[in-house]
Write a structure and sequence with these properties.
The complex is a heterodimer. Chain A is mostly helical. Chain A contains eleven helices and two strands; from the N terminus they run αααααββαααααα. Chain A folds into two domains: 1-130 and 240-269, no CATH class; 131-238, no CATH class. Chain A starts with 15 loop residues before the first helix and ends with a helix. Chain B has helices at 46-53, 78-84, 101-105, 107-111, 116-129, 146-158, 176-193, 204-210, 228-233, 235-240, 247-257, 269-283, and strands spanning 3-12, 20-30, 35-40, 61-66, 69-70, 85-88, 164-168, 196-200, 213-218, 221-227. A six-stranded mixed sheet of chain B has the order 6-7-8-3-9-10, sandwiched between helices. In chain B, strands 2-1-4-5 form a four-stranded antiparallel sheet, with helices on one face. In chain B, strand 9 (213-218) and strand 10 (221-227) form a beta hairpin. In chain B, helix 5 packs across helix 6. Classes of the chains: A mainly alpha, B alpha/beta. Bound molecules: adenosine-5'-diphosphate and magnesium ion. Adenosine-5'-diphosphate is lined by residues 12-13, 18, 20, 22, 40, 42-48 of chain B.
Amino acid sequence: MIRDITIGQYYPTDSILHRLDPRVKLVGTILFIVSLFLFHSFYGYIAVTIFLASVIKLSKVPFRFIVKGLKAVVIILLFTVFFNLFLTPGEPIFQFGIIKITDEGLRSAGFMAIRLTYLILGSSLMTFTTTPNQLTDGLERLMRPLRHIKVPVHEIAMMMSIALRFIPILLEETDKIMKAQMARGADFESGGILKRAKSMIPLLVPLFVSAFRRANDLAMAMEARCYRGGEGRTKMKPLKYSGRDYISYLVLLIYLGAVITSRMLENLL
Amino acid sequence: MQLIFDHINYVYSRGTAYERHALKDISFSIKKGEFIGLIGHTGSGKSTLVQHMNGLVKATSGSIYFNGDDIYASDYKLRDLRSKIGLVFQYPEHQLFETTVFKDVIFGPNNLGLDRLEAELRAYEALKMVGIGDDLLDASPFELSGGQKRRVAIAGVLAMRPEVLILDEPTAGLDPKGRDGILEQIKKLHEESGITIILVTHSMEDIANYADRIFVMNRGELVMNQPTKEVFSRYKELEQMQLAAPQVTYVMNAIKERGINVPTDVTTVAEAKAEILKLFHRMG
Ligand SMILES: Nc1ncnc2c1ncn2[C@@H]1O[C@H](COP(=O)(O)OP(=O)(O)O)[C@@H](O)[C@H]1O
Ligand SMILES: [Mg+2]
């Protein structure tokens, strides 16, 4: 059921992507997202699709598992497509009363759908191949220079890692509470919007209570082990770049170059 | 036969790295009015098994029959099944959500579509059964002690008047007094209303005291399905599955090893006491 939502989860296998330094993956993901919004042409899409497809292949995460994550955001996707489709002004190619679909609308809806899908695929690929701990280590390291302007880098990273760690826990908890209430005859599926919203109360109240309880327990456990922030804290496994990380940076650069070139070609043509 | 499992298999997260064959070819049948104890090491599949019984989890393969009907038939109403087979989850107090104890317990009966009077009657009766007094009916469930919360949560399932009551580790994390209290209530319920009970527990003493028959799960397989005494006489095998016989069984075995003739199929303290007294009488 709800545990089928795979977004933000870690998928344990052994691939080149799993072994990369988390900083490379973070930078790569950001570059990838930027690249998604750089181009407007068909060629750009080909470059991005090839890149994404090869990274998915390299990650050894089953495609089915990745696609499952998309299900969770299908609503957002539909919304975007819907608004782009009907609200973009331009040459109408189809008109029925006030409903009007324009050529531009069709294009931008299609592009937007692809972009969003790729964005989600790209960023979930990062979480699939990086444990939350690695991810936060990488983030902390990347943001370290910001400490000089008094950004609480360590605290932000810690908060993020806890939040990430809690996603699967809360999903599991939701699943359990849902089952427990269904065992008492609760019905989460049928009825109109109002009835459905009301049927969520028996799920949401225990979920909040449990989230607070867990947060409290965690804070207590951290204090009991004398956690007091990042000051003077050392790492058991300090991050270190190796050969494959430099190669990956090179690949990323080439990719970015390709996308920018295709963007410039667009402008020329 | 009231409940029949026919070659049930269940696989979690099929086709992913998390794939887990949690139930392997499980078959058994349960008669009306039985008291079944379900034991097994953590992760052996007990919770998964009981969630199949009321159709919360659908088997990957195999069939389940309740009162002769196939519960996976397309026209079978799973919601009816859930009202007849009450399942109390592990840590059921985590599912409390209402503002008062009474409102929480009446949630189940209301979902059955009963009229108000009948629903209230059932909720009240269920709270009485688990020993929650009138003074707590309007209290917030979140203010209660751990043991009281657990009782209220159990009442929430009892209020649906199930024909079968399944309890998944109902005493985990309770103090000895709270534990015995809850189990005694369950036993009373079993004796008075003839309801079928399936009790999942880690306490061999509890099982020995209450269950007529024991199911032993190990790594997703049902490895034993026998009367209580027969299962505990195989305690050497149980130990290999990280389980054990009740402490008194070991005591009786130790006495026997010292050359004193006592029966070793004793599983409860009361029985052991009777046997030892008999021994003293024999010795004069
Ligand atoms: N929701 C789930 N998703 C994936 N695997 C699960 C899930 N629930 C339980 N499992 C796995 O199935 C096996 C049986 O679990 P469970 O039925 O909870 O055992 P028990 O109740 O005997 O401790 C365990 O190995 C557990 O890790
Ligand atoms: Mg369990």
